[in-house]
Amino acid sequence: MVNVANDLGRKDQQLPADGPGVVEDGSTVASLRRVVDHQAELLRREDEVNRILVQTVLAGGSLADLCRALVELFPGVALVTTTDGRIVATAGSEADVAQAMALECFDRTGRLIVEDEPVGVRTPGATKSERTMVRIVAGTSDHGLLAVFTPGRVLTTTDVHGLERASAVAALAITKEQAVSAVEGKYRAEFLRDTLVGRAGAPEEAIAHAASLGWNLDRRMVVVVAETDEDDSRTSRDAEELRSLQERFVRAWVQAVRTREPNAPVAGFSQEVVALLPAPCAPGTGEPGTTGTTGTADTSDANGERGSVMRSVGEIVKVVRGDGGGGRRTFSTGVSRPVESVADIPRAYAEALRAVAVGRQMQGESAVMHFDGLGIYRLLSLIPDSADLRAFVDEALCELATDDQPSYADLRQTLQVLLDTNLNVAETARILFFHYNTLRYRITKLEQMLGPFTTDPQLRLTLALALRIRQMRGV
Predict the structure, then answer these.
(1) What is the CATH number of domain 197-380?
(2) Among 245, 253, 312, 357, which residue's beta carbon has the most beta carbons within 10 A?
(3) pTM exceeds 0.70 for this model
(4) What residues does the PucR C-terminal helix-turn-helix domain cover (predicted)?
């Protein structure tokens, strides 16, 4: 008992190590009583933590239940994140959660920056916020972090021990959820795969089956395909690492989609994730599944619809990528045209796959492309032999197909803008910040190299195609 009191480091609780008069000394007895009371309070607190955690386990509590229990123990905010910092469960008042999410330890997408967050207690002196984090580990598997934010209070050693026991409960809940999700996910993925290839049965049957899985197929939708840019068949990563990366990739997409559209079908396959997101109403009417009026207004509505879809997809993509990456692989995303019926989903799936492949050729890795944005690239991508495309470029652009001289790139840019402006010399000069006479000189030089494209529409078409092909990667 003497050693315990001395370990507390408080002057009013120091006890002599030995010597007479311990009982007769009133101050010593008072100190001893304070030590005993303190230890009793710690034991009571520890028993309360154990009782709440045991009740959570026996009730089959989820991660959300665990977070709510922790908020009762440690007033503030409690949350569980994945290994790369994505929040999967949280508890606390809206004001407290908002205050915690505004801290510097979260990025703009709401991801906890785990790369900069050490495990243990963080005090306000360095971080302007009291927070404590412990790892959630089951065997050799790291499942993420359990964190509590306690404004105005730093957790004691006993509190941290209680939080570590809570992390064991979190590991149990995660393991259980993963086991259930693995079975459900496999069943859901098989059904979604059948739907994508047209083997889900009649539309009414597919809609009813999807509803039993918590999915809504009875609405206007677009198919979104997210495909990893890395080719797993040519990677140096081992099988276990690939499996872990793909599982993380799928979980990130499922979480991001369900947060915005809880009833949207989403599942992961070998190197891709497929989601069926709701599309806005058909242009011009405000009613799904109908056609609008013809003319410019209809085209404007269609463009607005595509813009709305791409904004929604872009928000999901931004969340999945996060700021800083967190160890995730890059991926490209393709979006189909809207479909009105389950029977049209296979066609939309093919469009989304085409958008991914061609988008990567046009923009490189991390491309996000709508099928309607492919333009002429959609046709060019159907040519299987890239050698034929390269030969076409060499024949059409002659020496401009190469970068043998620094001026060739500038001449190609001039030619591209001229073609884009339909040979409007004044507009081209304005875009390129050229003097009119300088541009006329360049046009003369281009015609000497390529032929009379200003008067030959067929030659202009050939040159325009050659320039587009040259922009495609892999050609």
Answers:
(1) 3.30.70.270
(2) 253
(3) no
(4) 411-469
Cα pseudo-dihedral 253, 65, 40, 119, rounded to 10: 0
CA-closest candidate to residue 269, choices 156, 207, 188: 188
Q: What pLDDT is recorded for position 119?
A: 74
Residues with pLDDT less than 70, the chain: 1-29, 31, 35-53, 55-60, 120-129, 181-182, 282-302, 323-328, 474-475
Q: Residues 6 or more apart from 85 whose CB is under 8 A from it?
A: 111, 112, 113, 114, 145, 322, 326
Q: Tokens 């700021």 — which residue?
A: 323
pLDDT in tens, 371-413: 999 988 888 877 877 788 889 999 999 999 998 888 999 999 9
Q: Could you tell me which of 466, 459, 471 has the C-alpha nearest to residue 392?
A: 466
Other CB atoms within a 10 A radius of the CB of residue 188 amount to 20
Specify the pLDDT at position 37. 63
Decide if 473 contacts 364 (C-beta within 8 A): yes
Rounded to an integer, what distance in angstroms lies between the CA atom of residue 266 and that of residue 451?
53
Residue 341's contacts (CB-CB under 8 Å, 6 or more residues apart) are 203
Residue showing tokens 């309360």: 48
Q: Going by C-beta distance under 8 Å and a sequence separation of 6 or more, which residues neighbour residue 28?
A: 15, 16, 21, 22
Tokens representing 273 are 């994730």
Element (H, E) at 418: helix 407-420
Q: Which residues contact 365 (CB under 8 A, 6 or more apart)?
A: 229, 330, 332
Regarding the domain delimited by 386-471, which CATH topology (the fold level of the hierarchy) does it fall under?
Arc Repressor Mutant, subunit A (1.10.10)
Q: For the range 304-307, what are the long-range contacts, defined as Cβ-Cβ under 8 Å and sequence gap of 24 or more?
A: 305/279, 305/280, 305/338, 306/370, 306/372, 306/373
Pairwise CA distance, residues 258 & 316, whole Å: 10
Structure tokens at 148: 């509590």
Burial of 296 (0-12, 13-18, 19+ CB in 10 A): exposed
3-state secondary structure at position 149: strand
